[in-house]
User: Which sequence fits this backbone?
């Protein structure tokens, strides 16, 4: 919002605290209630830590439902690339509170490069974003973006941020209509309001999606188009060079090539992304670093140019959340100030947190800020 | 940091008008080729992108200006062969037409019997854009395809005579101009061969990164400037300064006259081209199997912008023949550098062998 003071988030938070309404869980299509679901166990929940998470959430009355979205590999975003025609499934989870703070509303979360859905579902108490949001009354959908984790859409050289944005837009539409598959009792819920949240490059993708698709809110975490640090640019270009050295005409979209790490080695991955971590979080998160598609890094910089051209067209309310000690992106307030047409624009900077602000010790501030903003929006 | 675009337009138009009357002329290297003509040529194209490197363009019509340089006798033949030459990211048409005796590539090839069309890509030289973000690599490649079509159909404008309809059409590119040639051939399959000079999709050096990253940053800062209400024209310099431009272009033994002649050509590059190159290279590398025509590589042994490129020709797995020529003493723009005669002779021989029996 033009001229909006960034301190406005304080007001938003105050509003959220003042809102006493905790209403029934949203239901299918109309927002009415649906049969109570039983907490699900998924194949990803096989470790002792994840079993503990499942048990904890069950005790908290939080429901998890594994999801599958059938999507088309296309790019109708403002950041064009040549999408290889295909269909595949994007997998994820719906995490629902026992009682919803905002009936009929869900947030779709998009993870960063080198990450996966796990970023939002780290099995350490207090750091599982979906669980923490459910405890605060908010429904969350977390996914492995195409080409990551258990989702389809492999194609390291042919993936791009524009395709990712298009797929996110498709999933937002499916969440509105309930036209996806959800394990567990009852039909897949249809949500009247869908907020898009992204972290790092996931936030860039969310921004691109918000330029063309209808979203009811946009949360930008630890991404700043103009606030890239020299370290990010240098690492990204080195990453790109490495991709070029391994690319070739025998690497078709059906082969396994074209995936790479932004941060080489677990030590650098931890150092780059965390500023003040709980050792338990590091033990859970660092081994889960994933390679990302070369095409994402190749399209990212042109995508930044598209962002900067189009952020002023986004009308949905915007919340920016930033780690003040992020080594990759700085100037969150500057980024949020570019959303000049947004219905409202708020920013939260967590001073001691790094790029993985949702997994550093200040994670609770991320959860609280989001919950307050979602309630007050 | 960017060049005053309005002045460039006026200068380019004026030069084009003056040069229009400088026909015909002769070349000196191989007089047996007969009189050589050097004719201004114009193409009407659209700034669109149908290649594998989808990128941001304005989709508008533009004129592309260039020259047809050829032995007069060749143009009188039925369906003669021609090569369309495309320059790189930090240069323009001038690399093929340097005003130094013995270093004008187009004239040297004409003296060896070959017709050449050289052009300024959209956004460069005689076709500057008001907004440098309005074109990109894929669009420049699409424009090359449109020009190839027009060269075959004779539907372009040629000062002083009826435009010939060419038969075999080859694409020659220097640096990212060769990237365009590869993208064009993979997308449209309409050319008879590719000459790729000073280009490989691999082997980026620290000297390349040292130039590209600040240029990229400058372009993105310009977009940010615009987003915050400040004007920017979308142009930036690939080479941080003139010394870097020279060092990146030429080898240590470059002739002094060449070194002096390139100085006025240190100009800014459209940001849209710079920003789209990473994705374009990725699309190119994965699409090289779509190139099914002969390819001739020319490398400068002293090129500081690309090294370790020997595996690159092997990626052209469906080209019927791939040849490599290296001028050991030359730098990135080997076609004007020390040993450039080897380039002229090598390319002419390659064209002699292929123009007579095009593979397409």
Assistant:
């Amino acid at each position: 919002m033009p001229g909006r003071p960034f301190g406005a988030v304080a007001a938003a938070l105050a509003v959220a605290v003042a809102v006493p309404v905790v209403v029934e869980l949203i239901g299918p299509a109309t927002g009415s209630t649906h049969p109570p679901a039983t907490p699900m166990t998924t194949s990803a929940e096989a470790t002792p830590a994840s079993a503990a998470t499942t048990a904890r959430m069950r005790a908290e009355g939080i429901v998890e439902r594994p999801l599958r979205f059938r999507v088309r590999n296309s790019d109708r975003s403002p950041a064009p690339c040549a999408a290889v025609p295909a269909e595949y499934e994007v997998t994820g989870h719906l995490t629902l509170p026992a009682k919803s703070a905002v009936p009929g509303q869900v947030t779709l979360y998009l993870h960063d490069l080198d990450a996966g859905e796990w970023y939002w579902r780290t099995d350490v108490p207090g750091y599982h974003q979906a669980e923490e949001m459910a405890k605060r009354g908010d429904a969350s959908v977390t996914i492995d973006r195409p080409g990551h984790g258990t989702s389809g859409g492999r194609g390291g050289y042919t993936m791009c941020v524009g395709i990712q944005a298009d797929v996110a837009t498709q999933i937002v539409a499916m969440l509105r209509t309930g036209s996806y598959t959800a394990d567990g009792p009852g039909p897949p819920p249809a949500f009247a309001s869908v907020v898009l949240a992204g972290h790092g490059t996931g936030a860039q993708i969310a921004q691109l999606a918000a330029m063309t698709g209808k979203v009811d809110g946009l949360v930008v975490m630890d991404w700043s188009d103009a606030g890239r640090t020299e370290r990010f640019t240098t690492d990204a270009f080195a990453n790109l060079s490495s991709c070029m050295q391994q690319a070739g005409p025998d690497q078709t979209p059906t082969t396994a090539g074209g995936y790479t790490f932004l941060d080489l080695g677990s030590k650098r991955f931890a150092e780059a992304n965390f500023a003040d971590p709980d050792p338990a979080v590091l033990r859970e998160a660092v081994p889960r670093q994933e390679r990302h598609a070369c095409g994402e890094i190749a399209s990212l910089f042109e995508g930044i140019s598209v962002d900067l051209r189009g952020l002023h067209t986004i009308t949905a309310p915007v919340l920016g959340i930033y780690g003040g000690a992020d080594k990759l992106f700085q100037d969150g307030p500057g980024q949020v100030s570019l959303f000049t047409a947004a219905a409202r624009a708020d920013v939260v900077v967590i001073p001691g947190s790094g790029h993985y602000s949702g997994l550093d010790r200040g994670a609770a501030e991320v959860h609280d800020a989001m919950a307050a903003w979602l309630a007050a929006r | 940091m960017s060049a005053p675009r309005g002045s460039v337009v006026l200068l380019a138009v004026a030069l084009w008008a003056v040069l229009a009357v400088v026909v015909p002329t002769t070349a000196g290297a191989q007089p047996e080729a007969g009189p050589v003509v050097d004719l201004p040529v114009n193409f009407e194209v659209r700034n669109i992108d149908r290649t594998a490197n989808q990128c941001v363009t304005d989709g508008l019509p533009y004129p592309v200006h260039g020259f047809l340089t050829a032995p007069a006798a060749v143009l009188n033949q039925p369906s003669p062969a021609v090569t369309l030459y495309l320059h790189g990211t930090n240069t323009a048409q001038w690399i093929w037409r340097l005003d130094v005796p013995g270093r004008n590539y187009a004239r040297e090839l004409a003296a060896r019997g070959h017709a050449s069309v050289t052009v300024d890509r959209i956004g460069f030289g005689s076709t500057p854009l008001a907004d440098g973000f309005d074109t990109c690599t894929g669009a420049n490649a699409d424009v090359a395809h449109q020009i190839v079509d027009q060269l075959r159909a004779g539907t372009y404008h040629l000062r002083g005579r009826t435009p010939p309809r060419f038969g075999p059409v080859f694409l020659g590119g220097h640096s990212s101009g060769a990237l365009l040639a590869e993208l064009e051939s993979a997308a449209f399959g309409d050319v008879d061969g590719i000459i790729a000079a000073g280009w490989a999709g691999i082997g980026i050096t620290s000297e390349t990164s040292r130039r590209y990253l600040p240029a990229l940053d400058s372009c993105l800062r310009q977009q940010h400037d615009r987003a915050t209400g400040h004007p920017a024209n979308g142009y930036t310099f690939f080479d941080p300064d003139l010394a870097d431009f020279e060092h990146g272009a030429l080898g240590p033994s470059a002739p002094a006259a060449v070194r002096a002649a390139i100085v006025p050509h240190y100009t800014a590059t459209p940001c849209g081209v710079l920003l789209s190159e990473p994705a374009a290279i990725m699309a190119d590398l994965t699409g090289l199997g779509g190139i099914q025509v002969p390819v001739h590589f020319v490398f400068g042994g002293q090129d500081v912008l690309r090294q370790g490129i020997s595996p690159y020709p092997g990626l052209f797995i469906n080209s019927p023949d791939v040849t490599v020529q290296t001028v050991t003493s030359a730098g990135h723009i080997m076609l004007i550098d020390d040993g450039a005669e080897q380039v002229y002779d090598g390319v002419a021989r390659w064209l002699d062998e292929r123009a007579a029996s095009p593979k397409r």
Chain B touches chain A at residues 49, 51-56, 133, 136, 201-202, 204, 209, 212-213, 216-217, 219-221, 223-224, 226-228, 271-272, 275-276, 278-279, 281-283, 285-290, 315-318 (CB under 8 Å). Residues 1-31 of chain B have pLDDT under 50 and may be disordered. Chain B is about 35% helix and 15% strand. The radius of gyration of chain B is 19 Å.
